[in-house]
Specification:
The complex is a heterodimer of chains A (193) and B (277). Chain A has 193 residues and is an all-alpha fold. Chain A is built from 9 helices and no strands. Classes of the chains: A mainly alpha (193), B alpha+beta (277).
Chain lengths: 193, 277
């Protein structure tokens, strides 16, 4: 992965190794925020913003703090610290500048703090040995992949509102089955990169 | 183990924690959104039904709007007691006490209305509406599958013996959830004090309407002529009542040839009580 081109990284992160559908990261907001296309899109954009910011900050923390001082074992703790602070900051700013988006995202914004997709992308950047540009591109593409998956899912869930679903499958069961079927669809991309 | 090995890990994490903490504290000051404590107090009084009847997305947003100058009487779920409490917090007189609004299903079709077709498929008014407007010959009529009954959280809607939805005004809190749920747009908010309603929404010409439904408004204008208060008018072949002018005199109810105008006699309850006593 270290020598992969930018295009390869983008395609890989959006389609082939889609964070939600192939790596199964960020499932909580994927299920929780996908009832309406509008909020799903908002969540996707929030994740995109946080992930690209987080990968920038963690890249510098990793390069100038962890590696020179041989503290690789601290990366999980330190990345969580950085991401948590970042999300808090975004939340404060969002509340002031975009109250409507803040209301729409509600409790799920703080949840990005512990969203495994965000931590996952930073750890993967480090693991793949990406440089700064590749890290940010990978994070943004991964977040766009997440947005794609959650928005597609939201469209389907909105469509299911009027469907005649057998009683035992109402609500979450049918949502999980749908998610698994979308996951199958993404499986079709495997082996491309 | 050399203790100096601990300096960098412990030091760097601590410094980062302190710096980030300070930055967040600064940001929360700088980007502070002034929250009026009256907002929380009003939010605590509101019923938390989050139904949206007040015109705001939820109770919290209505609480904010009230502090921002919105009138205090919009919460129909809480009714007068809640309005009084909010008025007290805001220090205003509860002057514009809202008329209690209740939902009214404007159709009496049901069994009085013939079916054009036999419908087989998904149950539900919405699903039926998608298929050529449903099986009823009257394209305005209640389908009786109870989409409105399903959304009502206050047990105020039931399908009556005619096969049309009917609102129980005693239970109705005026949350308007059913108004949005009806695919035929048959449900309207009306003042609870008003006793006279045209229970038909059909705007087709009279002769055609009469073939399909025995209790439909045929637009004959007899009610318009009978009304002494200029409160009822036939517009687009359908009688419509101006609730601001209606005095519940029942003149229109008496002359309506198809009995499409419902008049609930206010003294009926009293009479029943007298008879049973």
């Amino acid at each position: 992965m270290e020598n992969a081109g930018l295009m390869t990284i983008i395609i890989s992160a959006i389609l082939v190794n889609n964070f939600t559908m192939s790596r199964f990261l960020g499932i909580c907001p994927f299920i929780g925020m996908s009832k309406k296309v509008e909020t799903a899109l908002g969540m996707g954009l929030a994740v995109t913003f946080v992930m690209s910011m987080a990968s920038t900050f963690t890249y510098f923390a990793n390069k100038y703090l962890l590696i020179p001082h041989n503290m690789g074992y601290l990366k999980t703790v330190m990345f969580i610290l950085i991401i948590a602070s970042l999300v808090q900051f975004v939340e404060i700013v969002l509340k002031k500048i975009l109250p409507s988006l803040y209301q729409a995202l509600g409790v799920f914004l703080p949840l990005i703090t512990t969203n495994c997709a965000v931590l996952g992308v930073t750890l993967m950047n480090e693991q793949f040995g990406f440089n700064l540009i590749k890290s940010v591109v990978h994070a943004t593409a991964a977040a766009l992949g997440f947005t794609l998956a959650i928005v597609l899912f939201a469209f389907i869930r909105e469509g299911m509102e009027t469907n005649d679903i057998p009683e035992p499958f109402h609500g979450f069961p049918i949502a999980l089955i749908t998610a698994s079927l979308i996951s199958f669809a993404f499986l079709g991309f495997s082996g491309m990169v | 183990m050399d203790l100096t090995n601990l300096i960098w890990p412990v030091g760097s994490l601590s410094v980062m924690g302190i710096v980030f903490g300070a930055a967040l504290a600064y940001a929360s000051q700088k980007f502070e959104v002034a929250v009026d404590n009256r907002v929380e107090a009003i939010d605590a009084i509101l019923p938390q039904a989050n139904c949206g009847a007040c015109g705001y997305p939820g109770c919290a947003s209505y609480a904010e709007a009230v502090v921002g100058g919105e009138v205090v009487s919009l919460c129909s779920v809480g009714g007068a007691p809640v309005t009084a409490k909010i008025a007290k917090i805001m220090g205003v007189d509860n002057v514009d006490e809202a008329k209690r609004m209740v939902a009214k299903v404007k159709c009496m079709g049901g069994n009085n209305c013939i079916d054009d077709a036999v419908y087989e498929g998904l149950e539900g008014c919405l699903a039926k509406t998608f298929v050529a407007g449903g099986p009823k010959s009257c394209k305005y009529g209640c389908l009786g599958d109870g989409d409105c009954v399903d959304v009502c959280e206050f047990d105020a809607l039931h399908i009556n013996e005619l096969g049309v939805a009917q609102v129980d005004p005693d239970n109705c809190v005026g949350c308007t959830l059913c108004v949005a749920a009806c695919p035929k747009h048959l449900i309207e908010m009306v003042p609870d004090s008003c006793r006279v309603h045209v229970l038909c929404k059909n705007e087709e010409l009279g002769g055609h309407v009469k073939k399909n439904c025995s209790v439909a408004c045929i637009g004959c204008k007899l009610c318009e002529k009978a009304c002494k208060f200029d409160a009822i008018h036939v517009i687009d072949n359908l009688a419509r009542i101006d609730y601001d002018k209606c005095t519940n005199c029942m003149a229109c109810v008496k002359v309506c040839p198809t009995k499409a105008i419902e008049g609930i006699l206010p003294q009926k309850k009293v009479l029943d009580a007298v008879e049973s006593a």
